[in-house]
Design brief:
The complex is a heterodimer.
Chain A: E1 4-16, E2 22-36, E3 41-46, H1 52-58, E4 67-72, E5 75-76, H2 83-89, E6 90-93, H3 106-116, H4 121-134, H5 150-162, E7 168-172, H6 180-197, E8 200-204, E9 216-221, E10 224-229, H7 231-234, H8 238-243, H9 250-260, H10 272-286
Helix pairs in contact in A: 3-4, 3-5, 4-5, 5-6
Chain B: E1 2-12, E2 20-31, E3 35-39, H1 46-53, E4 61-66, E5 69-70, H2 78-84, E6 85-88, H3 101-111, H4 116-129, H5 146-158, E7 164-168, H6 176-193, E8 196-200, H7 204-210, E9 213-218, E10 221-226, H8 228-231, H9 235-240, H10 247-257, H11 269-281
Parallel strand pairs in B: 3-8, 3-9, 6-7, 7-8
Antiparallel strand pairs in B: 1-2, 1-4, 4-5, 9-10
Helix pairs in contact in B: 3-4, 3-5, 4-5
The chains are: A alpha/beta, B alpha/beta.
Chain lengths: 287, 285
């Protein structure tokens, strides 16, 4: 069974005038269908307004579709008796860490979720410790979240989700406000959770360098999924991505530019290592 | 025009056990028409520093001098001075509040005491510099796209006609195209109006591509101040400070380590492309 099974969903936002009459409706999702298997690392790309965040909010029942169905581990998200279980299964991390902190001490922050779920106290304490260890923040257990950096706060937000033992984490631009170190740390944690604890990850981002290690990339445009494939497949379409207001990693762009100028490099180079190896081969051929 | 800081030091919660120096002994000189990138990890003191540059914070010790005059000196007109140094905060679109775009941009100049007609003229000029089409003047700011809202907010500061425009993370949360569009307009504003622009950013790639001077702040001190190409060749030192170098600098370093005869540093894809083509064409490998 797929952990996420989205069948033909549409979602309409309704605009209302000051009398509360509907004036206009905007289709934010338009017949989206996709499946994600447990343990996959998925990246979602798309320009501002393409429907990424609306899609993400459907994965833990913050929004339910206007038409079509979202199943999370087989549970229909529009059935309100499933809401709590859906939210335990798929946890969300948002862009701004400051908007997600509720407690004054880190361990209370992380324990907030399981406490709300009615988990027994001993078990909460254990989960909090485990979650903080997982994200490398155990040393800050007794600190105040306000004294942490953005990257540290995001790792605390992730720990807060982990303490609810989710099968899936949906992270909506979790690195957008972070410095390079914070960015790298958050990504490392998401990949580690994916590899070691088999947590399914859905990462929404505008940073092309962050998605090259994903198993699959969905590209959204106009509320539809317009591309779906491995990073190598997706990033071999440089021109198409630029038309969608997106980009490719710098190393891919450099390889593409060199190829345009006549160096016989292969398409879809994603890492510096591959790039250096390709150039090495090319240089050898010349000697 | 010259904005100078002398031994600028700011301490949070002085005299308590939480006392912490956010910046210490910062000496800087900012001149006309510079394009400066200010980088540093979260908590490095960047925000504290920029808030001193237009007098929002008063230093614990040291001074800020505007054309040689202490901005906290007797008789200095700080209100007028704030018109010279415009600060665009992070996510400035959250500060839009008026019923239409033009009114929102007029708010600043009107506050400076300008007449309705003068304020409108300035607002229109600023909106055009920021790349907002006349058709949108009567639109509600809340109907615009994220990128457009941000431009309107930038226009709001431009309409004050600052000599120095400081932008704190102007591209955070924008898609790649939106990011390029904003940075291109900022670059255009600078070249057309001779303003100095200070870009605070966590994106080393953006900084490398646009600015001609980089200031690196770490633990409240200026660690580097100079030409981007030179500064971004210090990859290890930058990483120790929680920063990084542009992707292109890493690629060239790897090529060099693999034995390719790379000399110097490149900051953009085009520069690196030409460098690599040069090596192949000259038959150096």
């Amino acid at each position: 069974m797929s952990i996420i099974d989205v069948k033909n969903i549409t979602y309409d936002y309704h605009k209302k005038d000051d009398q509360g009459n509907e004036t206009e409706s905007v289709r934010a999702l338009d017949d989206v269908s996709l499946e994600v298997k447990e343990g996959e690392f998925i990246a979602v790309l798309g320009h501002n307004g393409s429907g990424k965040s609306t899609f993400a909010k459907h994965l833990n029942a913050l929004l339910v579709p206007t038409g079509g169905t979202v199943y999370i581990c087989g549970m229909d998200t529009s059935d309100t008796s499933n809401t709590l279980e859906v939210r335990k299964t798929a946890g969300m991390v948002f862009q701004n860490p400051d908007n997600q902190m509720v407690a004054s001490v880190v361990d209370e922050e992380v324990g907030f979720g399981p406490e709300n779920m009615g988990v027994p106290t001993d078990e909460i304490l254990k989960r909090v410790d485990d979650a903080l260890n997982s994200v490398g923040m155990y040393a800050y257990k007794d600190s105040s979240p306000t004294r942490l950096s953005g990257g540290q706060k995001q790792r605390i937000a992730i720990a807060g989700i982990l303490a609810m033992k989710p099968k899936c984490i949906v992270a909506d631009e979790p690195t957008a406000m972070l410095d390079p170190k914070g960015r790298a740390d958050v990504l490392k944690v998401l990949h580690m959770l994916n590899k070691e604890q088999n947590v399914t990850i859905i990462l929404i981002t505008h940073n092309m360098e962050e998605v090259i290690d994903a198993d699959r990339i969905f590209v959204m445009e106009g509320g539809k999924v317009v591309m779906n494939g491995s990073p190598r497949e997706i990033f071999s379409h440089v021109k198409e991505l630029q038309r969608l207001r997106l980009d490719v990693p710098e190393v891919t762009k450099l390889a593409f530019e060199l190829k345009q100028k006549g160096l016989p490099l292969r398409d879809g180079i994603l890492t510096r290592e591959e790039f250096v190896n390709e150039l090495r081969l090319l240089a050898k051929g010349r000697v | 025009m010259e904005l100078r800081t002398e031994k600028l030091t700011y301490e949070y919660d002085p005299g308590t056990s939480y006392a912490k120096k956010a910046i210490e002994d910062v000496d800087l000189v900012i001149r006309e028409n510079e394009f400066i990138g200010l980088i540093g990890h979260t908590g490095s003191g960047k925000s504290t520093l920029i808030q001193h540059l237009n007098g929002l914070l008063k230093a614990t010790s040291g001074r800020v001098l505007w054309n040689g005059k202490d901005i906290f000196g007797d008789g200095f007109d700080r209100k007028e001075f704030r018109g010279h140094v415009g600060l665009v905060f992070q996510y400035p679109e959250y500060q839009l509040f008026e019923t239409d775009v033009l009114k929102d941009v007029c708010f600043g100049p009107k506050n400076l005491g300008l007449s309705e007609a003068e304020a409108t003229a300035r607002a229109k000029e600023a909106l055009s510099l920021a790349g907002i089409d006349e058709k949108l003047y009567k639109a509600s700011p809340f109907e615009l796209s994220g990128g457009q809202k941000r431009r309107v907010a930038i226009a709001g500061v431009l309409a004050m006609k600052p000599d120095i425009l400081i932008l704190d993370e102007p591209t955070a949360g924008l898609d790649p195209k939106g990011r390029d569009e904003i940075l291109d307009s900022i670059s255009l504003i600078r070249s057309e109006t001779k303003k100095t622009v200070i870009l605070v950013s966590h994106s080393m790639d953006d900084v490398a591509q646009y600015v001609n001077r980089v200031i690196v702040i770490n633990k409240g001190h200026i660690e580097f101040d100079g030409e981007p190409r030179e500064i971004f060749s210090h990859i290890e030192e930058l990483e120790e400070m929680g920063l990084s170098a542009p992707a292109i600098s890493y690629i060239l370093r790897d090529l060099k380590e693999a034995g390719f005869p790379i000399e110097g540093n490149a900051l953009t894809v085009e520069e690196a492309r030409d460098m690599i083509l040069g090596i192949f064409r000259r038959g150096h490998v």
